[in-house]
Design a protein that fits this description.
It is built from nine helices and 23 strands. The two termini are about 30 Å apart. The longest helix has 18 residues. A hairpin with a 3-residue loop joins strand 7 and strand 8. The protein is about 20% helix and about 30% strand. The radius of gyration is 21 Å and the shape is globular. A six-stranded antiparallel beta sheet has the order 8-7-12-4-15-16, with no helix packed on it. Strands 1, 5, 10, 11 and 18 form a five-stranded antiparallel beta sheet that branches. A five-stranded parallel beta sheet has the order 20-19-21-22-23, sandwiched between helices. The protein is of the alpha+beta class.
Amino acid sequence: MTNTVERFTKWVACWGNATSITDRKECVYSKDLTLRYPIRICFSGSKLRFRFSNLTGTEDVNLTKAFVAKKADSYISVPITFSGNASAAIAPGTEIESDEIPFEVSAGETVEVSMYFKGYTQMNAGTLITGPLSKGKYSYGDFAQAETLPLDYTRNTNWFYFLNTIDILTEEKNHALVCYGDSITAQSWPDYLALRAWREGHHNVSIIRRAVSGTRILRQYDCITYQAYGLKGETRFPIELNVAGASAVIIQHGINDIIHPVGYEVNPFRPWSDMPSCQDLIDGTTNLYISHARKLGLKVWSGTLLPIFGWRTYSEMREDLKNEFNQWLRTSDLFDGCVDFDKAVRDENHPEAFADGFDSGDHLHPSEKAYEAMASCVPEILF
């Protein structure tokens, strides 16, 4: 025990997600619901703590009970408590942190975090993410302590509700790398980056994803049609950069600022007045992102914006704006470096477009093969 205490001295985030407004459908409440998320733990450690978020909710979320478990010789399930209590109320617009839970885990193991909500629960705080490490399930009924969820009452989900961050008490050498962005980052490349780091022997770094589809640096939507596109950068960034043990952040954000405006007569929620200049994007990135990250002592790496040729709002004006902003992202000495995602996935002979096999089909989001290429182009120094 003494050796464990001496070895594990530093809290580091080992898994993290953003919290945003979920899509406003006809039904936004659940009842008698179990959520279960398998989480791969990249560090060895002796304790875990959990952050739960109702950042974008408008009502209390009453968490009836929660557990962390792993399969060893038997199914080991440990209660997650809050000031010693099994249940907790998460007020709207807030996040809460659990007690420190003694829970020994070895690097590379997968734990399961299960939450049960007995009463009516507003499902308005969560984020849609995808990737090989991002899978969840939900069940109708109380199965938070069950080793196996009942097939007849269970479905898969990529919506991650309420669970925001997991910290581990681990070794001093370990650190977190934050990937910040929009739908591009909410999809698979951070998962592939985590797998690459592990495969190449970099077992001292976690990949923390802070990404929300549709988000912009400078604007946000307050209408229910597009509210799920999330909070603007000024609001998001200081909250999402609350990451224990973080050393650096990769910022890949801004394409939605460029592609969304179409004019009030086409879409009343997307006026031309929302269209930024390149200087607007530079100022937003500098004043909202870089300045705050520097206050936290983080290294800041830019990530270039990807091809958009063929996207439904594509135009030469948008292409020129994207290229001008990318040039600044590549060359500005305000950053510690640049991850040139654009170069990694574009067609060499037609740089406005994705390379063959790298387009998901909508001409905006990469294919899985392209997401792997994005993960591969991250400089090793960030590990």
